[in-house]
Amino acid sequence: MVLWTGLAAALTPAAQEFVAILRQLEPVHCEKMKLRRAIALAEVEQRDADATPMKKRFAELNRDPNTAKLEKRLAELEHLILDGKGGARDPQDLDAISFQRRQAFYRCE
């Protein structure tokens, strides 16, 4: 984590806020990822009775006002961070965001 601390100081304020919000949303994103997998598996195996409550829970997560507010802010920050050509105004920002997303993915597994 020492490496991450050094990178955080070099990030733009928008990227720092983006990473902080990603951390806040990590439990929700993890649950949504697990639900997506379970729903897909249930549908492939034609277990609609199992898929229905999971779909309901997924919808509840999406309707949560706090989650929606944070995800909206992420979208706003993304526009500030990206240069409009698929890159970032500051390349270190994308590296740090990618690092945070990978770490969250592996923690979720």
| Nearest-integer average pLDDT | 87
- Give me the count of strands: 0
| Strand/helix succession | HHHHH
* Gyration radius over CA: 17 Å
Number of helical stretches of at least 4 residues: 5
Estimate the global geometry from the Cα principal axes: elongated
Unreliable runs: 1-5
Structural class per helix/strand content? mainly alpha
Explain what you see:
- There is one protein chain.
- With 109 residues, the chain is an all-alpha fold.
- Helix content is 84%, strand content 0%.
- Helix 2 crosses helix 4 (65-81) and helix 2 (13-44) runs parallel beside helix 5 (91-108).
- The model is unreliable at 1-5 (pLDDT under 50).
In short:
The chain is mainly α and 109 residues long. The protein has helices spanning 2-10, 13-44, 48-63, 65-81, 91-108. Mean pLDDT is 87; it is low at 1-5.
Structure keywords:
mainly alpha, disordered N terminus, 109 residues, 0% strand
Task: Record the SSE blueprint.
Elements lengths: L1 H9 L2 H32 L3 H16 L1 H17 L9 H18 L1
Helix pairs in contact: 2-3, 2-4, 2-5
